[in-house]
Amino acid sequence: MKRLFSSKLWIAFVILLIFISGQLLGAFAIKHYFTQSKIEELQPPLTLIGEEVADGENIRKTDDYLIKAYDVHGMEINVYNDEPISRFSSDAKVNKELTSYLPKIISGKTVVEIQEVPGYSAQAIIIGQPLVQDNKVTGGIYLLKEARAYQAALNGFYLVFFVTLAIGTIIILVFLALFIKEKNHLEQMRKDYVANISHELKTPLASIKALTETLSDHVVKDQEKIDQYYSIILRESVRLEKLISDLLELSRLQYKKTAYTKSIVNTKEIIAKVSEPFAILADDMDLQFQITERAKSLPATYSNEDRITQVLTILLDNAFKFTPENGKVTIDAKTTARKAEIMIMDNGPGISKEVLPHIFERFNKEDLSHTSTGSGLGLSIALEIMEQLGEKISVKSQANAGTTFTITLKKA
């Protein structure tokens, strides 16, 4: 029970309970308003008939309703002038039902009920009030009218009720199934996240520890070897620092604690500034690096310059990382009526179909052995930034045919 409430599944059950309660209240409301309308319609003629019966007058029978009257002892009074009191069993059933209200009526109260009256109707409205003669209650008089309109309305309501109940229950059950599925998925993601963090932190720490112990024990005497060990320790420390920095950055983004100020930015200048260090890196890595004329002539956009610079840097770094020697990385662009799109394309090995749907998740790397450099958080950070800017980031890739990442920016 505790797990049920802690997982907030109770919300769905509360919704279902409120839904059913609302439908039942609707049924009571129909009965209430129907009863009130019939009181307003039938009580005045019943009062008039009661005065006539009290004065000893007979009334004419009508097909619209049935009039019954009884003295204080429960004996039926003949109110019709055209026929004697019936002694059939069906009439006796009606009398038995009506005389059960007699004590209440003799005490001066009015009775209004909608219920089945054996021998008369499946559903009938009953209005009963005292029979008064010379300011003294001498019995009770009743008006019975078949409640066909009420029954039809109630049947219609019940039909709607059960149909909507069935639909509502199905929707809530689907919601519950999706909720449980999503909960299980998030729980699995949490476990994977912890496992991946442990793995990513463990690797550089293990290297630093092993090399530090070796240096501390003075096992290595060769100065060149000692310098190499220090170089590895420094490199692993930088890697560890980058991982922790990216984790903190992603955490801040996901908890929406970072506010972005948007302004009109020179998109061409951003691309030129971001591309400059990568152009130097391309020469060192024997890669072709191209910026198309469309990218060089992009219009101004409305965004956050620092964050767009960060996203483009992540995407270019990713492209350079996975593009082989003599490969090609291209920055291209296109514009629509309201948006500018920047594409970072490479002709590297591409992303497999299995990994592509999860490429923006934390620690998802194409090489699952974690042999690639980087924290595995860059694309997750890029996604969070673009979502908080109200923009989109997407990816298209084909195995052995390269990858294209696309971001959108609102034109100024």
From TrEMBL:
Compartments reported by the entry: Membrane
Keyword Transmembrane helix (UniProt): yes
Ranges where the Histidine kinase domain occurs: 196-412
Recorded catalytic activity of this chain's protein: ATP + protein L-histidine = ADP + protein N-phospho-L-histidine
Alphabetically ordered keywords of this record: ATP-binding, Kinase, Membrane, Nucleotide-binding, Phosphoprotein, Transferase, Transmembrane, Transmembrane helix, Two-component regulatory system
Lipoprotein is among the record's keywords: no
Residue spans crossing the bilayer: 157-180
EC number, as in UniProt: 2.7.13.3
Top-level EC class: transferase
Name of protein: histidine kinase
Organism encoding this protein: Psychrobacillus faecigallinarum
